[in-house]
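Reopening this ticket.

The earlier resolution said the output was attached, but the attachment link was broken on my side. Pasting everything inline this time so it's all in one place.
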Amino acid sequence: KSEVRISTIDSFVNTIFSGIIAPFHNIGDFSIDNNINDKLLPEIYEYVLQEKVLDFAENIFFTAKQRNLKIFHTLIKEIIEKRWLFEFVDLSHLNDAEIQNQSERALHRYQQSLHIFLDLLQNEIRIKAVPVLSLLQKDFVEAISSQMNLAELTAEDFSEKLFPILTDPLFLEENFKLLLNDKKNIWDGKRLRNKDLKSLFAEVQEALAIYLYYDKALIEELNIISLAAAVLRVYDEIKFRDHIFTYSDISYYTFRYLYDPQLSLVEKENVLNLFYEQLSFHTRFVLIDEFQDTS
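Inline output:
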């Protein structure tokens, strides 16, 4: 028994942190307090309100539909609590010109697929020879009613009248959930049964989703990533200054610095002998129980 050392994963990680990571940062003593982060928020907010960081925060705040400090407070806390997500996101290859180029290409693809779809839908409506609105899904009719006089919509100019509406940026922003709903069509599926309608509309939805990603979502995503980088930068400075960590901090910093070239502990995914030498014991087995529990 004296030659066997058994520890939980948390204890094992803590051993690595205290034996390797902490000394690397000249930390001789540290404490663990899982409630400490709330006390750090005022200092983090003070940093976020600096001019060089404030632009990212403003862009996020003013594009949100709900603008209140409680939501912003929640965002900052979630950035800290879910920092692992940012560890595996790399959008550094994107710049404003590239995003603009991708957005324009996506819009062109959406417009092309929309033209083909609307022309087929118009042809199906013409064949039915019944009032146009009776062949459209009611939520869609309600949405376009604010953009045009529905009495003027005929089977002869259906595609021509709807195309500018369905490519209007404001209309797309306000009605994207309706247009991207994979449970509903914009036409009455019981009365118009052409299978090509469904496949073509799926192409329209895919193209629209890609366009909205580059035109709307990606910009907000980049703002959040930039804000997160600033928040986590000052967060790390506070942690290594005060030497007070949470258990999540211990896990994250252990993972992060194990791969630091200055420590030379991991090379090409292989753990080097130096790792074991600094731990003063050798690990022969790692037994994982409740593997599905990713917490």
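Reporter confirms the inline version is readable. The longest strand covers residues 31-32. The radius of gyration is 28 Å.
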